Amino acid sequence: MDLKQKEREILNLYADNADLFVGCENLIFEGVWSTNFNKIKYQIIYYNHGKGKKSDTYLLSNLLIKAGFNKKDIGLEVSEPNYKIAKNVDEYVKDIFDEYCKRKLLPKLHQVHSELSSEIADVNGCLEGLKSIIGDIEAIKNNISIEKKTTDIFDQAFQELMDAQSNVKEVIGYSTGLKDLDKICGGLKQEVIVIGSPPGSGKSSLMVNIIDNVAIKQGKPVAVFSLEMPATQLMKNMWANNLTINSYSIRGGCLLDEDLIKVKQYKQRLKDNLVIDDTPGITWQYIETRIRNMRKTIPMSELIVVVVDYLQIMRNSPEETRGVSSEEQLGLRSNGLMELSKRYNLCMIELSQLSRDVGKRENKKPTMGDLKGSGAIEANAVIILLLYRADYYETDPMEGGMSLKGLCEINIAKNRYGETKRIYVEFKGKYSAFKDYNPDGLITGSTTDEF
């Protein structure tokens, strides 16, 4: 049976019974079909399935006529389903998808061959082009939904509503370890979160807090791309955070014996769910390659938290730099990371520099406009957290009669699906830790676990 016959038989079977395609439905989408006729035919069938209707031959033929096809072509292509091939559905769908892959890859391979034959070949550009197409194909094979039925979207949204109604889940996503932040933002979900702060306000400490709470305490997958801080320093900060050991003592090599034992035992808590990569000057395409490798063992339904420290010192691929301003390059990075978040089910946490003007003005509380290259960053972020520590600038700061000493203000400056608000948390710089703040002086949260 040739490709044309396989597509005809599969579409006729799909029109009558979509349940036969459970397990390979991710390989069936509009672009996979080789002819425009079959793409329109698929659109009609898919639309009717979304309405809970079968596309019988009469209905399908009439709709194809309305779409501009003649009766002769329709008569040859639309017929009663052949259930004799039902047992071979997976095999036929795979063959159709393989042909789609060939159609996607071959022109690019010819183009790459031609470009590499040139004396001024851009090798990096060729590689990035190939990786982009291969990434698209792998995304489909890894069951990333190309199309979602509106009824499925409704069911998921309704379940989230019922969870909220019954308070089954106070936090929909992974907990950050800070109760007030979780309550307002709903935890870490598939979205882009930007964290910005002036120097010394605890941006890196909040990053460590989240990594420890998600990867170590909750056992969820986390990938950290630490462009600024060496991996060994990040690990030392995680010891300080989780074990409540003074980070200065760790760096100075003057730990007490009992603390040294705790550090050694900490290794037992490290699992494959945590990836730390301190490769300098990476691109968003490099991050995609690492995430694709993680997705080989982590199902697409399981959220991965990705932390990028920090956005401004990432680089762009060669084709993204030619004739492009530095601000536009930053926008391309931001756009690329947002696409990865959607494509691979990621909570993308991006640490960001602020403009130097923050330190020059009298009111040093940051605003969204202070984010360096803020246009694309603001647009792509679902949540923006701006950190400010008054006691970094003043000895005994007060605001509204409240002492701010030892506190960090987290300004939830943007929250696309919730309220914007300022909250306070306790900042323990020597432990690279944040804790929940209670005005009565009672610490309600904890950054340590007992062994």
Commentary on this structure:
- With 451 residues, the protein is α/β, with parallel strands linked by helices.
- Helix content is 44%, strand content 13%.
- The protein is built from 15 helices and 11 strands.
- The protein has a 9-stranded mixed β-sheet, with helices on both faces. It has a two-stranded antiparallel ribbon with strand order 7-8.
- The model is unreliable at 441-451 (pLDDT under 50).
In total, the number of strands is 11
Shape: elongated
Average pLDDT number: 81
How much is the radius of gyration in Å? 27 Å
Strand content: 5-15%
Quaternary arrangement of the chains shown?
single chain
List the helices and strands and how they pair.
Layout: H1 3-16, H2 36-50, H3 57-66, H4 71-77, H5 89-116, H6 123-141, H7 150-166, H8 179-185, E1 191-196, H9 203-217, E2 222-226, H10 231-243, H11 247-252, H12 257-266, E3 274-277, H13 284-295, E4 304-309, H14 326-344, E5 346-352, H15 374-380, E6 383-388, E7 398-399, E8 402-403, E9 407-415, E10 421-428, E11 433-436
Quick take:
With 451 residues, the protein is an alpha/beta fold.
Main traits of this protein?
alpha/beta; nine-stranded mixed sheet; elongated; disordered C terminus
